[in-house]
Design goal:
By secondary structure, this protein is mainly alpha-helical. It has a domain at about 15-225. The protein has 12 helices and 4 strands, in the order H-H-H-H-E-H-E-E-H-H-H-H-E-H-H-H. The protein has helices at about 1-25, 35-50, 55-80, 85-105, 120-130, 145-165, 170-180, 180-185, 190-220, 230-245, 250-270, 280-300; strands at about 110, 135, 140, 220. The strands form 2 sheets. It has a two-stranded antiparallel ribbon with strand order 1-4. A two-stranded antiparallel ribbon has the order 2-3. Strand 2 (about 135) and strand 3 form a beta hairpin. Helix 1 packs across helix 10 (about 230-245). The chain is globular, with a radius of gyration of 20 Å. The N and C termini lie far apart (about 55 Å).
Length: about 300
């Protein structure tokens, strides 16, 4: 049960990353590799601030803001200097590795002896249940683990609702239209470059927010923790779209969350069945390949409907 709760919690935390990748990948059609650096930047910023006595909530928000700055830099390189979006992301991601080391001062910052945002879930659980353990459908479960998962679920639901609301505002609608047809938006007199830069800032802000919370949940921030996270985000978005089917805004955001949780559960099951941790990235790539190929393969297997006479 502990493994299940831990997998669900990490899947929910990384759902924030999935929503960030959704913004860059589906709204603007940019597979932004800045993700690999900005999630670590969020973790590093939050960790070093917490260690130095900053309130965990403020440290977490600072981590998200740092990621937004990284996304802004990528957007400026792409729009102002006309660098290919993929290459711009690679440049910023590469630079962020050194930046993250400077922020932390070393390659790893432990947080086990500090107060962090996940402690709030444990405190709420102990206040409600009144004991260290609780029973859920016959399973004895650690109270803190369960309520940290519940808190993560509520927070992800709040951020998802906020993102849905934002993309239905005038600015959000213009951003979505920019991704679909930049020529039309430019003809209407809107500043396409500004929307792209702002969109990448929002995307990487969400990614860094995930990193800041993940570091506090795991108890450390590490310079290597961002490797391959863009693949995780893309897999979550693609799996989510396969689950919900439609491409409406609300369903795709929900699908990204579902995809992140399911993807984490698949990884946990693979590890439970004896997968060598050294093969984890290989299995991740296989899952992404399957998520990309299976929907089209299944569609080909379905019989074509006869044309109406």
């Amino acid at each position: 049960m502990t493994l299940l709760l831990g997998s669900l919690t990490i899947g929910l935390i990384l759902a924030l990353l999935a929503m960030g990748v959704y913004v860059s990948f589906r709204i603007f059609d940019i597979p932004d590799i800045t993700t690999d650096g900005s999630i670590t930047l969020g973790a590093a910023t939050a960790a070093i601030l917490i260690v130095n006595g900053t309130h965990p909530v403020l440290a977490t928000l600072a981590g998200a803001a740092a990621g937004a700055v990284a996304g802004t830099v990528t957007g400026i390189l792409h729009t102002k200097f006309k660098i290919n979006a993929l290459l711009a992301g690679i440049l910023v991601m590469t630079a962020l590795y050194s930046v993250n080391l400077h922020v932390m001062g070393r390659s790893n910052v432990p947080l086990l002896q500090t107060e962090n945002v996940t402690d709030y879930g444990a405190d709420i659980g102990h206040a409600i249940v009144g004991s260290e353990d609780m029973d859920i459908f016959g399973w004895e479960t650690d109270t803190a683990d369960f309520f940290v998962m519940v808190l993560a679920a509520f927070f992800v639901a709040f951020v998802g609702a906020l993102l849905y609301w934002f993309f239905r505002t005038n600015v959000g609608t213009a951003m979505r239209a920019t991704g679909n047809n930049p020529q039309m938006i430019r003809a209407l007199g809107a500043n396409v470059e500004r929307y792209v830069v702002f969109g990448l800032a929002v995307s990487n802000g969400l990614v860094a927010l995930a990193g800041a919370i993940l570091a506090q949940y795991q108890g450390f921030a590490d310079a290597q923790m961002g490797i391959g996270m863009i693949v995780w985000g893309l897999a979550s978005v693609i799996i989510g779209e396969a689950l919900v089917g439609e491409r409406s805004l609300g369903l795709t955001i929900i699908g990204a969350v579902m995809g992140s949780v399911l993807f984490r559960l698949l990884v946990a099951i693979a590890l439970r069945w004896g997968l060598n941790p050294n093969d984890l990235k290989l299995i991740t790539a296989v899952f992404v390949f399957a998520a990309l190929v299976l929907p089209g393969f299944i569609k080909k297997l379905k019989p074509n409907k006869p044309a109406a006479s």
